[in-house]
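WARN  no MSA supplied for this record, continuing single-sequence
INFO  ligand: iron/sulfur cluster
INFO  echoing inputs
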Amino acid sequence: MFKTDQKNDIIAENDIWEVEYPVMEHFYTIQGEGAHTGRSSYFIRTAGCDVNCWWCDVKDSWEEEGHPKLTVRELVDAAKQSKAPFVVITGGEPLLHDLLPLTLGLKSAGLQTHIETSGSSPLSGQLDWITLSPKRFKKPTEEVFAYVDELKVVVLTNKDLKWAEENAAKCPEGTRLLLQPEWETPKSVDLIVDYVKENPEWGISLQTHKFLKVP
Ligand code: SF4
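INFO  complex generated
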């Protein structure tokens, strides 16, 4: 688990519960992709992203402006009302925000904290599961690699397979290694299937929520 160096007692004094985050959406659903596929989970999609992937399927999350600001209290209360055992903090790029107050709040409510990040901004928070989805448009910090639980690389072309190998070489032993076809690039499926057959330490992540039409 990644624990930030920040002192919890300092944060507690400042009352984590009223700290606000710009949030595009938050909802109870099924994790559709990656190592925890098929598990019920609560999603918090923060607003703001500076990575600019051209194929991004959540471009509405890029700007913070126009999205409501919600407090830790509001977000934790909503997540607690679901039966989700863990909360996925995603974006946007969630690490544009200091995640310590939010993750402390979630953990105090007995919820596990997962994050899906490009890793391009400094790590923060108390995180039980880190999914690194590195983007060539804005590379991950070197610091993040020591804490990665799952490496999930979106693949469009052969260049992405090379990018996946470069990133995997920096991850701890035992990291789940997953390649995910870009949804609008069906030819990437053949690339990935051939690659995984040749390199069985890798697996395939599919965006099952899109097949199943689960929001
Ligand atoms: S990092 Fe994620 S949210 Fe940001 S542009 Fe890329 S795919 Fe979209």
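The longest helix spans residues 187-198.
INFO  checksum written, moving to next record
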